[in-house]
Amino acid sequence: MVNEDCVWTLPNVIIWDMASMWQFHLRRWRCETVQCGTVKLRVHSPNPENGPRSIGAVKVLRISVTDRCNYRCVYCMPADGVAWLPKDELLTFEEIAAVAGAASRIHGIRRFKLTGGEPTLRRGIVDLVYLLSRTGAVDDLSLTTNGQLLPDLARPLREAGLDRITVSLDSLRPDRFLKITRTGDLATVLRGIDRAVDAGIDSIKINCVVMRGVNDDEAADFARLTLDRPVTVRFIEYMPLGESAVAVDEIGPRGGCGAQQRGDVFVAEDEIRSRIEGEMGELEPVDRATESGVGPAVVYRVPGAVGRVGFISAMSKPFCSTCNRLRLTATGVLRSCLFEGGEVDIKPILRGHSPGAADDVADQLAQAMVDCVRLKPETHSYHGNEQMSRIGG
Ligand code: SAM
Ligand code: SF4
Q: pTM (2 decimals)?
């Protein structure tokens, strides 16, 4: 129960949030009265331009280009029976470019990540990369992929203007890799990573979702990849999203997505980290500013390693207060949060069906971004209503 009347005005207080480097000018503190009678103070920034709910905090727009995928990762999709979105509901490349242009010109958001589903399955993905990289709206264009089509696509993507790539890779053992992805071929993905290096994509990240009884025994093996390669391996905590639960025994002693909700599969960052440190020595913190991209990972180095390891720990260490991204689904919905947050449908604006369609489309798109970012929850809901392949991670 919040007592809205109890607002104190104080002399100007300035707080630096060292994690985000935001400066909060505080003049008002709000008194929050809780039922037990204790009182706690909540910092209340008077300036709407500060904090993750301000458009000024957004540095990255993640753009999903398809909901389709050639894998069926156990933690992301059901094995079969997935209902794909009708193609005419997907944003066209011109519509995507219009959104990127508005984000860039009006809000200064100049970093874009293409994702999916599997973005390399979208017909003409190389053309989209070419289009976006030539708009003058983009400083950094990256793509998250399962890597299956990378052997053929790495060079064309690079030549079209792709700056960086993230490859999802959850096991270094071929059999296990196949079980987790249900269709993937590890050797092909590893070849794809080599091709990306050969093509001159010099910032490569590897995402690994850690699951107990499935691949948690490989944490140190993944960290070992960084010893002589300039890659960043990022360990991702499993997040329960959508309806992708699998049968308990499908991939290991405790199963996948559905099992997580019973607490079986989830492995927290601290445990992953101590597994790695137990084999490889204490991880050394790395200055975040030296890491490419502005992602949520906290980054370290194995002693003596060329590359880095990072942790994306949305469940055990939510980073909502420093969230710097917006998401655009393949059907043109801006999403404020990966879990359950507010959404703003911008397809009516793009397709000329919005009430103010006569106004400049770019201005309307830009306003929709402001409206969406205001819907970000204070802390995420720990459970998502939509499976990851529909949102893009
Ligand atoms: N298909 C591409 C890929 O796998 O990289 C891009 C889309 S995928 C949805 C983006 C990222 O989300 C991947 O790194 C994947 O491992 C991660 N992901 C999917 N479902 C997840 C879940 N339930 N918990 C944690 N990460 C998940
Ligand atoms: Fe496909 Fe990526 Fe989801 Fe795996 S994580 S099923 S590769 S969208």
A: 0.84
Q: How many Å lie between the centroid of ligand 1 and the Cα of residue 181?
A: 11
Q: How many structural domains are present in the chain?
A: 2
Residue 142 domain boundaries: 54-322
Same domain, 131 and 38: no
Q: What CA–CA distance (Å, rounded) separates 235 from 170? A: 9
Model confidence pLDDT, tens digit, residues 225-235: 999 999 999 99
Are residues 86 and 23 part of one domain? no
**What sign does the dihedral 146-149-153-154 (CA atoms) show?**
positive
Q: CA triplet 389, 320, 246: central angle to 5 degrees?
A: 30
In a domain, residue 93? The reply is yes
pLDDT at 321 > cutoff 60: yes
Q: Which atom of ligand 1 is nearest to the CA of 257?
A: 23
Which ligand is in closest contact with the Cα of 167?
A: 1
pLDDT digits (tens, 9 = 90+) for 263-311: 578 899 999 999 999 999 999 999 877 777 767 889 999 999 999 999 9
Q: Which of 72, 114, 118 for mutating ligand 2's site (highest number of atoms within 8 Å of CB)? A: 118
- Is the same domain home to 22 and 73? no
The pLDDT score that the predictor gives to residue 30 is 34
Looking from the CA of residue 69, the nearest atom of ligand 1 is 1
